[in-house]
């Protein structure tokens, strides 16, 4: 019987692609029996380098943080930013009383007043249905917190269910409860559009703050310029986009290393960057006496158990290395790394430009690209750094000269 593509083994899928023997062997070399069970149509793994932010003080605790990223200089910048923040006493974390996800039941061409009246009358039923749908989250101290009807437009209403998912990221928990709650709205079934969680987790907004002695960022002139750069991020969407991208260099790297959904975290962050009606930087920096103070606030949905986090040993190892046992602690660490990343980038731009340090790290990738061996990379990078104009041809010629 002919198998469908999704029914094939990883090796059978590769064989069907008519690859060269060398290419097929290369794909097979990176295969994992475990990861083959996690995604569909699996053929191999794509490995991302993981490095360490060696020491950052978060909520009074020293933490070593794994970061998974392919971009040179990200981890070096995070370590530099963390060192400056540590000198100012480290990063403080402010959490909401209870972090929770929001799930939506969506209705169209319906009377908002009728939905609101119904939601008010059915509160007891909602809580009963939620507990029956997902009793395990109640055993862990979580569950449904409240339900409200929110008018989206003249014809659209969202019924928002706010659910505490404890240490799980919580998407499956929320969607399971939502699908059970849908039955309560049988009188509105013809107006029902869909049930789905929202990644805009405004009930999970976390704030991290830190301060750095002005002397460590390069003195008063650099500190003032750093603040002005950040002000551009609040006034100009072009600058804001790049500043937030740099922020997510750090946030995304830690989120990925811990097996969490970095796409959901970034989507929520960018949405929150627009919550005033104008897209702007997620951080705010100001001068306060002899210090420069930074603040970052955004919603962040992550977990320490469940899903890929529990299935992937590398995610479990990362969490163990950090010493992070609960989702709220992980939220604080991830955003602290983002603040450190942002600080390092702003300082580099304000104090002579970002390209010098960035290119030094890029030269390592270039050296590998032109075929340098592990023993040759350091010397080739040194020569590239001393060269005025650098490209692949220059690197290749220098490498050939080294080998004579």
UniProtKB/TrEMBL annotation:
<protein>
    <submittedName>
        <fullName>Hydroxymethylglutaryl-CoA reductase</fullName>
    </submittedName>
</protein>
<dbReference type="InterPro" id="IPR023074">
    <property type="entry name" value="HMG_CoA_Rdtase_cat_sf"/>
</dbReference>
<comment type="similarity">
    <text>Belongs to the HMG-CoA reductase family.</text>
</comment>
<dbReference type="InterPro" id="IPR002202">
    <property type="entry name" value="HMG_CoA_Rdtase"/>
</dbReference>
<dbReference type="Pfam" id="PF00368">
    <property type="entry name" value="HMG-CoA_red"/>
</dbReference>
<dbReference type="InterPro" id="IPR009023">
    <property type="entry name" value="HMG_CoA_Rdtase_NAD(P)-bd_sf"/>
</dbReference>
<dbReference type="InterPro" id="IPR009029">
    <property type="entry name" value="HMG_CoA_Rdtase_sub-bd_dom_sf"/>
</dbReference>
<dbReference type="InterPro" id="IPR004553">
    <property type="entry name" value="HMG_CoA_Rdtase_bac-typ"/>
</dbReference>
<keyword id="KW-0560">Oxidoreductase</keyword>
């Amino acid at each position: 019987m002919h198998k469908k593509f999704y029914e094939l083994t990883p090796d059978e899928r590769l064989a069907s692609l008519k690859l060269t023997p060398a290419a097929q062997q290369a794909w097979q070399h990176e295969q994992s029996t475990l990861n083959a069970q996690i995604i569909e149509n699996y053929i191999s793994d794509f490995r991302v380098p993981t490095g360490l932010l060696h020491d950052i003080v978060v909520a009074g605790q020293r933490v070593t943080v794994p970061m998974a990223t392919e971009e040179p200089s990200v981890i070096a910048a995070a370590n530099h930013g963390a060192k400056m923040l540590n000198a100012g006493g480290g990063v403080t974390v402010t959490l909401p009383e209870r972090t929770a996800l929001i799930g939506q039941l969506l209705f169209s061409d319906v009377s908002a007043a009728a939905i609101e009246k119904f939601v008010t009358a059915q509160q007891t039923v909602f809580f009963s249905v939620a507990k029956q749908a997902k009793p395990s989250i109640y055993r862990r101290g979580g569950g449904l917190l409240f339900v409200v009807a929110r008018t989206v437009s003249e014809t659209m209403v969202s019924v928002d269910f706010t659910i505490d998912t404890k240490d799980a990221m919580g998407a499956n928990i929320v969607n399971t409860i939502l699908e059970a709650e849908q039955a309560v709205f049988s009188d509105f079934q013809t107006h029902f559009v869909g049930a789905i969680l929202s990644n805009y987790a405004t009930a999970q907004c976390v704030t991290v703050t830190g301060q750095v002695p002005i002397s460590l960022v390069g003195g008063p002139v650099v500190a003032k310029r750093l603040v002005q750069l950040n002000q551009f991020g609040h006034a100009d969407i072009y600058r804001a986009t790049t500043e937030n991208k740099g922020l997510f260099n750090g946030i995304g790297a830690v989120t990925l290393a811990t097996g969490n959904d970095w796409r959901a975290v970034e989507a929520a962050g960018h949405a929150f960057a627009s919550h005033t009606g104008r897209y702007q930087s997620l951080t705010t920096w100001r001068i306060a006496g002899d210090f420069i103070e930074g603040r970052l606030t955004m919603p962040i949905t992550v977990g320490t158990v469940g899903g890929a986090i529990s299935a992937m040993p590398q995610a479990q190892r990362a969490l163990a290395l950090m010493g992070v046992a609960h989702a709220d602690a992980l939220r604080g660490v991830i955003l602290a790394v983002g603040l450190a990343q942002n600080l390092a980038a702003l300082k580099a731009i304000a104090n002579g430009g970002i390209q010098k340090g960035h290119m030094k790290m890029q030269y390592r990738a270039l050296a590998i690209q032109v075929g340098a061996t592990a023993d040759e990379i350091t010397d080739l990078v040194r020569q590239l750094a001393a060269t005025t104009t650098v490209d692949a041809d220059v690197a290749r010629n220098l490498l050939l000269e080294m080998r004579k």
